[in-house]
Every structure is written in C-alpha cells, then in structure tokens.
Design brief:
2 domains; two-stranded antiparallel sheet; 6 helices; 5-stranded mixed sheet
Length: about 220
C-alpha cells in the first residue's frame, strides 16, 4: 500500500515538473522567433537557448521514466552528434574555472542506443571531470572503433579518485561529494548495460582519471 502511494505521488510530482519544463521550452521558441523577427543574430544566445531546450528534453524524458518499467527507447544515433551536443551542454558547469573540453573524434559511427540516456551519461562524466579540476585543466573526449565496438573515453587531469573509493564507485548510494546523492554513476552504468553497452573506470592517477563507455557499432 505504501509503495503504491509513493508511486502515485512520484507520478503526480513528475507531471507537475514536466508542465514547468514545457514552459521553458515554449519561451525558448518565443525568444528565437523574436530574434528572427528583429533580424538579430547572436550565436551565444542561440547556443544558450538550444542548450536549455536540450536539457529540458533530457529532464522530460527522465520524468517519463517514472511512468514506465521498460524505459529504454533505443534508436539509430550518430555518436559524434551526441558528443557535440553533450560538450555544449556541459560548458555551463565550467563557471569561472579555466577548463578546456577537447574532442578527438576521428570518425563518426552509428550506434543503436537510447540517445537521451547516453547523453545524460556523457554529460554526467564531463561534469564530474570538471568538478575534479580545482582551477585549471582539461577534459579529453576521444573514440576508437575496434571489433565492431566503439570505445568512448572521457578523461580529466583533476583530483584523482582514491583507491578505496574506486571499489564502490558504481554502488548505489556511494558518493565522495558533500552534497552528492550517490546515484549518478550507478544510474549511468545500469542504463548503459540495458543497452548492451557498459561503463567502467580505466584509471585514476594524479595525472589522469579516465572513464570508458563501450557501445556496439552498427554495420
């Protein structure tokens, strides 16, 4: 009985949040139309509006998950396009730090994946990397295709993860942050595994912390 009540409350809250998120999307479109009408071209504003709408879409799809058990919706995606979108979205987390996000994408590949969940995972990893960098550093994103699998590497040169923390990194509820929930990496790994993909920590040293996502490539 209590579980059913919690589920009902979660659906109601999700519904109300989605209504407010839709307002953000609508006003982004209104602003774009006003800029177009006034013949105003501003790349920074357009980029910001697109990022807001993309973030709103990711939030909206996460809320929809509360209504369904089978919430993985795979489709044919361009991995390069997803990475470019995620890089733009993650810029907001840099704030006053001097962090460069460098993409070394040699070739584009098609993958069969849930674009929203894959995007959420990539943004999460970039965000974590930025937070690990105190003042100045870099995030390097690269891909390598081998044996019908693409290996997506996301690394940073920030503060390393301690050996003790590495053991529980993907455990639900585990976090090293004061305000963390311990759900980010746990959710990322679970969502990827449901898509025949995976996420793992390759290394974490004072010089480099590297995560790797492996995804099957479509022929």
């Amino acid at each position: 009985m209590q579980t059913e009540l919690l589920q009902q409350q979660a659906r109601c809250i999700a519904h109300e949040i989605r209504n407010q998120i839709s307002v953000c999307d609508v006003y982004c479109e209104i602003i774009k139309k006003h800029l177009e009408k006034e013949n105003v071209e501003n790349e920074s504003i357009n980029k910001a509006l697109n990022c807001i709408q993309k973030s709103a879409k990711l939030i909206n799809n996460s809320l929809i998950d509360l209504k369904s058990i089978d919430n993985i919706k795979p489709q044919v995606c361009s991995l390069k396009h997803i990475i470019e979108d995620c890089t733009n979205l993650a810029q907001v987390y840099i704030n006053e730090k001097k962090v460069d996000i460098i993409c070394n994408i040699k070739e584009d590949v098609s993958v069969y994946a849930d674009e929203n969940k894959l995007s959420a995972c990539i943004v999460n990893l970039i965000k974590n990397g930025i937070e690990a960098i105190e003042h100045k550093g870099e995030i390097i994103i690269s891909t390598q295709v081998k044996d019908k699998t693409v290996r997506l590497s996301i690394s940073n040169n920030g503060k390393p993860i301690t050996p003790a923390a590495q053991k529980d990194l993907f455990t639900e509820g585990f976090t090293t942050k004061k305000t963390g929930s311990g759900l980010g990496l746990f959710i990322c790994k679970n969502n990827l595994q449901k898509q025949n993909a995976d996420l793992k920590l390759i290394q974490s040293t004072p010089k480099k912390t590297e995560f790797e996502i492996t995804i099957p490539v479509l022929d």
